[in-house]
UniProtKB/TrEMBL annotation:
One Gene Ontology cellular component: cytoplasm
CDD domains reported in the protein's UniProt record: KR_1_FAS_SDR_x
Residues in the signal sequence: none
Keywords: Fatty acid biosynthesis, Fatty acid metabolism, Lipid biosynthesis, Lipid metabolism, Multifunctional enzyme, NADP, Oxidoreductase, Phosphopantetheine
Domain Ketoreductase: from-to ranges: 40-222
Family annotation (Gene3D superfamilies): NAD(P)-binding Rossmann-like Domain
Name by which UniProt lists this protein: Ketoreductase domain-containing protein
Record bears the keyword Lipid biosynthesis: yes
PANTHER family: FATTY ACID SYNTHASE
Pfam family, one: KR
GO annotation terms (biological process): fatty acid biosynthetic process
InterPro entries assigned: KR_dom, NAD(P)-bd_dom_sf, PKS_KR, PKS_NRPS_Biosynth_Enz
Amino acid sequence: MCCDLRQLCLPLQVCDEVGSVRDADTLLPAIPRTSFPPTKSYIITGGLGGFGLELAQWLIERGARNLILTSRSGIRNGYQAKQVQSWKEAGITIVVSTKDVASIGGTRQLIDAASQLGPVGGIFNLAMVLKDAMIENLSTKLFQDVNKPKYDGTLNLDSVSREKCLELDHFVVFSSVSCGRGNAGQSNYGFANSTMERICEKRRQDNLPGMGTCYRKCISRFRIYHPARDTLNCKLYMMQYRIVPVPFSVVTA
Ligand SMILES: NC(=O)c1ccc[n+]([C@@H]2O[C@H](COP(=O)([O-])OP(=O)(O)OC[C@H]3O[C@@H](n4cnc5c(N)ncnc54)[C@H](OP(=O)(O)O)[C@@H]3O)[C@@H](O)[C@H]2O)c1
């Protein structure tokens, strides 16, 4: 969230000895803090991925109590299982869904399921498929595979949420510098990210929430650095390409 802190300075009021309140000379900066009402539900597509699990944790720390995480294959490793289990033990409602936002039917079912937990307050599209190839080898199929969760998924989430999510506060797509700056072998991925950003621009024109976040490799090519989970290979890769690992708490500060 961007804001001018000078505009948010709050006048401090003090109470004198006889009990009357007056303005003090001091101005205290009021720092905005995003929070997520526990009565609402939140959808994270690709929510079992590297970023998805960290984002879920952050939403929970900021108040969210009802989350749906999507993945085509469901829980596949111990880290995902451990995170989901620990949230459930803490009383959080976590649903792992395999409903696919690449189809309009799957998107409707997903949003209906979230609405049963509470009015949908946030939709975060993190679902990603990578099929890298240099342009001469980039077939239609490779383009379509990469665009399904991002282009089709964001279009579907946009249209269904306009109809069904009347209390939506956040519509966020996880994009990449590969779309603005380009990345060798990733024309399909760059295009897919760019389409999501354009959909968000249209939403903003229509006075609806819409935001694209652009991440780059400083977080790691494979996924965001997490000391408890990153493999030795991932760490070696980061050393080789001089990637500085950044904990998620820094990214979201
Ligand atoms: N990590 C980075 O450095 C970085 C940099 C720039 C941008 N980003 C963006 O951040 C987002 C998350 O990245 P990440 O590193 O967390 O990726 P990740 O670990 O690969 O997670 C992406 C997840 O998307 C899921 N997925 C794919 N297609 C799906 C579909 N149709 N429906 C639901 N889930 C689907 C995959 O799970 P299944 O295979 O089980 O479906 C996968 O777990 C991506 O959108 C990426 O473009 C990441």
